[in-house]
Design a protein that fits this description.
It contains five helices and eight strands. It is α+β, with helices and mostly antiparallel strands. A hairpin with a 2-residue loop joins strand 1 and strand 2. The radius of gyration is 20 Å and the shape is flat.
């Protein structure tokens, strides 16, 4: 019910030429014409306000939710998948900053993310492997219905010397 209400709300607030689609899970993508960073953030805040005010009830109770929004300008040399990745990164940063935020992935944001290690290259991973900084774990997949272990998933974690 919540996903349907989000979709309806988004379709009501965007222009007919804009594109709205579900990206996966509870994530949606809105593609609209870029005017300026200020106008994009203003549009994101309008989306956020509309989503937060939409009434959704389940079992007689109002469903509470927040809307963290990541924005990016699709540049001529940028692929769609790169733009989606950057918008997702900005949205995740909004969640980490306390939820219900609109974050624009501009050059200052990208520089900050780079300094925090958000963009990892194949070369960096290769070097980490050679230095023995990648640790491997097997995590059980537990079935609570049958009270049994159904399998395992392999995890790899990069333990950096600087934390």
């Amino acid at each position: 019910m919540l996903l349907k209400e989000i979709a309806i709300t988004l379709k009501l607030i965007v222009r007919p030429v804009d594109i709205v689609c579900r990206y996966g899970g509870e994530k949606f993508v809105v593609v609209t014409k870029y005017i300026s960073k200020k106008e994009t953030v203003k549009f994101g805040e309008a989306l956020q306000s509309a989503l937060n005010s939409a009434e959704v009830f389940y079992d007689g109770h109002r469903v509470s939710r927040t809307a963290s929004i990541g924005c990016v300008k699709l540049g001529k040399s940028m692929s769609q998948s790169e733009a989606l990745h950057l918008a997702d990164l900005a949205m995740m940063e909004g969640k980490q900053r306390g939820r219900d935020k609109v974050i624009f992935a501009d050059s200052a944001f990208l520089k900050e993310m780079q300094e925090r290690g958000a963009f990892i290259t194949d070369e960096q991973v290769g070097d980490a492997l050679h230095r023995g900084e990648i640790c491997y774990y097997a995590q059980p997949i537990y079935d609570t219905q049958t009270d049994t272990i159904r399998g395992f998933e392999a995890l790899a974690r990069w333990v950096k010397p600087e934390g």
